[in-house]
Write a structure and sequence with these properties.
By secondary structure, the protein is an alpha/beta fold. Helices cover about 30% and strands about 20% of the residues. The protein has one domain: Response regulator (Rossmann fold), CATH 3.40.50.2300. It is built from 2 helices and 5 strands.
Length: about 100
C-alpha cells in the first residue's frame, strides 16, 4: 500500500495491484512453446531499454524459451511499436 501526502485527506491509502511481469511473460512463452517444436527459431522483441517491466518480461519469456529448447535467434530492444514490418527477422523465425 502507498500513503500519499498530496491527497485530499492525509489518511487516504491507495492500493496498487499489478502484474508479475516475469511470471506473465513466462506463461506467454510457455504457451508459444506448446505451439512450436523443440529447436524452432524464435525472436524476442523487448520494450524500452532499461525499463524495469521490459527487463522482467524479457527474463520470463527467455526462461520459457530455454526451458522448451527453443532457438532464440535474435533479441531486439525497443521496437517502435506500429512499425513491426520494418524488423529484419530471419525467414525461419517461427515465433516472436
Amino acid at each position: 500500500m502507498t500513503k500519499t501526502d498530496n491527497a485530499p485527506s492525509k489518511s487516504l491509502t491507495v492500493l496498487f495491484v499489478g502484474p508479475n511481469n516475469i511470471k506473465g511473460a513466462k506463461l506467454a512463452g510457455d504457451f508459444l512453446a506448446m505451439k512450436l517444436n523443440k529447436g524452432d527459431a524464435v525472436a524476442i522483441i523487448d520494450g524500452q531499454p532499461g525499463a524495469f517491466n521490459a527487463i522482467q518480461r524479457h527474463e520470463g519469456f527467455e526462461s520459457a524459451m530455454k526451458a522448451a529448447g527453443m532457438n532464440v535467434v535474435t533479441s531486439q530492444r525497443y521496437v517502435a511499436w506500429g512499425k513491426m514490418g520494418a524488423l529484419g527477422f530471419e525467414p525461419r523465425t517461427k515465433g516472436l
